[in-house]
Write a structure and sequence with these properties.
- By secondary structure, this protein is an alpha+beta fold.
- The chain has a domain of about 200 residues: Periplasmic binding protein-like II (D-Maltodextrin-Binding Protein, domain 2), CATH 3.40.190.
- The chain is built from 19 helices and 16 strands.
- The strands form five sheets. Strands 1, 2, 3, 4, 7 and 13 form a six-stranded mixed β-sheet that branches. Strands 11-8-12-16 form a four-stranded mixed β-sheet. It has a two-stranded antiparallel ribbon with strand order 5-6.
- A hairpin with a 2-residue loop joins strand 5 and strand 6.
- The radius of gyration is 24 Å and the shape is globular.
Length: about 475
């Protein structure tokens, strides 16, 4: 660690003395060279810097030095500081080599020149990395047919689940395996409500916003009020909120809410880790045992899929790592990301923390966690499928996730990213309307067919027609050139 810091200081001094400028703004070069050893700067989000970061580096960097002749220097930004910190980084030209990004920022940052075009380089320099991901995933991160980031291969498709306290369901003779839509969910919840005397279905103010994602591609538009249905061969841009299939589902949700099957404070309730008899969540079925049950106090937790598994730009772009357009070591950064995505030991160090302190291998090469406070967020890093499974895992949940990805229904709009340049004001205005009404709309607190008329009227005033016209024009051009 002392050696790396000294090298950074020397390199920065040399850069300042030479008056070096990199990227789209003036900055000090945060990467350094110690002989032939390059230090890469990676900025990501998580729970802040790990308290045992130096101890971790003493395991990671010698391994990276032996494999690739590089070192890594991490900056893990706390969640609450992430938006401000990354704005400073991307707007000031501050030096980095790798930066975590996602669907809320990636396309704009790529178009603004923050990230390096790696379309050819990722294939030539790191063919193993390129081949480790399905072609649809590379298409999903393409911006104007160019690749600017490496998507994380994880639960990159989207599947929704009804998550149950099975003991409660069994108590009332409910076969949860037969409940796969809202129509069959309704009578089951009625039965539980009659017996328990309380609302069995917990909703936060997000309600069933996921209905839009289940049926529509949002075109990377940054708003839920425009989209193309996955099954629409004409690729017509519409307002998903007025889709008849979604309205039929929301009719049932409204009935549930009116009859007290959903918690009355749903339009204002935050997500909370407290006991729920039943709720909806995105993930995979094994998460009922590994995550949802423990987090929500359900001893016998089971999850049943609700709707199709879908794959879109949005689902893939939930986790991306981009290389700075001004990086002095782009090839090394790519080779590092290739190794992290394909080397199990390195992946385990990033995923679980310090070996021997945070975790250890069992005789059968599974991971036994010794602590639960590793501050790095695993989803920001690399493939889930390279990491070792834990000794507590009853099944290999990553195999289930991989199967969901492989069997997902791909959006016909994969590879399309809406250019929002001429409609940014209208999108902001329409989002303000959406934010005002979505809690009442998606929790069933108001009649959806009455509320949608108010929403449509206000969206029209906010400029929705201009957004639709521009989006349709771009969609038509996209398919004309395919």
């Amino acid at each position: 660690m002392r050696k790396a810091k000294k090298a950074v200081a020397l390199a920065m001094s040399a850069a300042i003395a030479a008056g070096m400028m990199t990227g789209c703004g003036s900055s000090n070069n945060g990467s350094s060279a110690d002989g032939d050893v390059v230090t890469l700067k990676w900025v990501a989000v998580g729970n802040g810097m790990p308290k045992n970061y130096d101890e971790w580096l003493e395991q990671v960097n010698p391994y990276l030095e032996e494999k690739l002749g590089i070192n890594i220097d991490m900056e893990i930004v706390p969640w609450g500081d992430w938006d401000n910190r990354r704005s400073v980084i991307t707007n000031s030209g501050e030096y980095f080599d790798i930066l975590f990004t996602d669907q809320t920022r990636y396309s704009t940052e790529a178009l603004n020149g923050v990230f390096l075009d790696i379309t050819d380089k990722v294939k030539e320099v790191t063919p193993e990395l390129y081949e480790s991901l399905p072609e649809d995933y590379w298409n999903a991160v393409a911006v104007n047919d160019k690749i600017y980031g490496i998507p994380t291969y994880k639960d990159s498709s989207m599947t929704q689940y009804f998550v149950w306290d099975k003991d409660v369901a069994d108590k009332y003779g409910i076969d949860i395996t037969q409940i796969k839509d809202l129509e069959t969910l309704y009578p089951a919840l009625q039965k539980i409500k009659e017996g328990e005397g309380t609302a069995p279905y917990f909703m936060s103010k997000s309600g069933l916003k996921v209905l839009v994602d289940m049926y529509f591609d949002d075109l990377s538009s940054g708003t839920q009020v425009v989209g193309v249905r996955y099954d629409d061969d004409t690729h017509t841009v519409v307002n998903p909120l007025e889709d008849e299939e979604i309205l039929k589902d929301l009719d049932i949700v409204h009935k549930m809410y009116s009859e007290g099957l959903i918690n009355g404070d749903a339009p204002t309730a935050d997500d909370t880790n407290k006991y729920h008899m039943m709720f909806v969540a995105q993930g995979w079925s094994a998460a009922a045992k590994t995550t949802w049950g423990p987090n929500f106090g359900i001893e016998n937790c089971e999850a049943i899929q609700f709707g199709d598994t879908v794959l879109s730009n949005k689902t893939v772009q939930g986790s991306i790592n981009g290389i700075y357009s001004g990086s002095q070591h782009p090839d090394e950064a790519l080779k590092f990301l290739q190794l992290l995505n394909t080397d199990t030991y390195l992946r385990d160090l990033f995923y679980y923390g310090v070996e021997g302190s945070d975790w250890q291998y069992t005789e059968d090469k599974k991971v036994e966690r010794l602590t639960s406070d590793w501050a790095m967020a695993s989803y920001t890093q690399a493939s889930y499928f390279t990491a070792s499974t834990q000794v507590t895992d009853e099944i290999n949940q990553w195999e289930e996730v991989k199967q969901l990805n492989e069997n997902a229904k791909p959006s016909p709009m994969i590879g399309f990213n809406l250019d929002k340049t001429n409609i940014q004001t209208e999108i902001a205005n329409c989002n303000a309307v959406y934010e005002k009404y979505y809690p009442e709309y998606f929790t069933g607190a108001q009649d959806p067919r009455e509320l949608i008329e108010t929403i449509k009227s206000e969206l029209e005033t906010a400029g929705w027609d201009k957004i639709r016209e521009e989006a349709q024009k771009q969609v038509d051009e996209f398919f004309a050139n395919k």
